[in-house]
Amino acid sequence: ARVAPLAAALESGRLRLVPSGTGSPGIDLRFVGDELNRAAAGARWLLLEGQGRAIETNWATRFRCPVLRAAAVKDPLVAGRIGVAPGAALLRGE
C-alpha cells in the first residue's frame, strides 16, 4: 500500500506537529510552551496554519528559517489589513 507523503514524513520523524502550548488560536511568541521552543530552535522551516497563527498574531514577525503561512482569511478587517478579499485563501512563503 502506498503511504501519503505527509504521513510518511510524520512516521519517519522528518515532519513534526507541535502544540503551541498557549491554549488560544493565535500564537503570542512570548508565551509559547517549552516543547514548541525546543522544536522551533532546530527547525529547518515552519508552517503557520490558520488565520490566527499565520496572520493575526505573527504577520510582521521575521523568523530565522523559511516560513510557510497557510490560512483562509475569514475576517474582513484582517483581509483589509493584508490587502486580500474576505474569503481568500492565503499561501505565503517567506
From TrEMBL:
Alphabetized InterPro entries for the sequence: ARMT-1-like_metal-bd_sf
Entry superkingdom: Bacteria
Entries under SUPFAM superfamilies matching the protein: AF1104-like
The protein's name: Uncharacterized protein
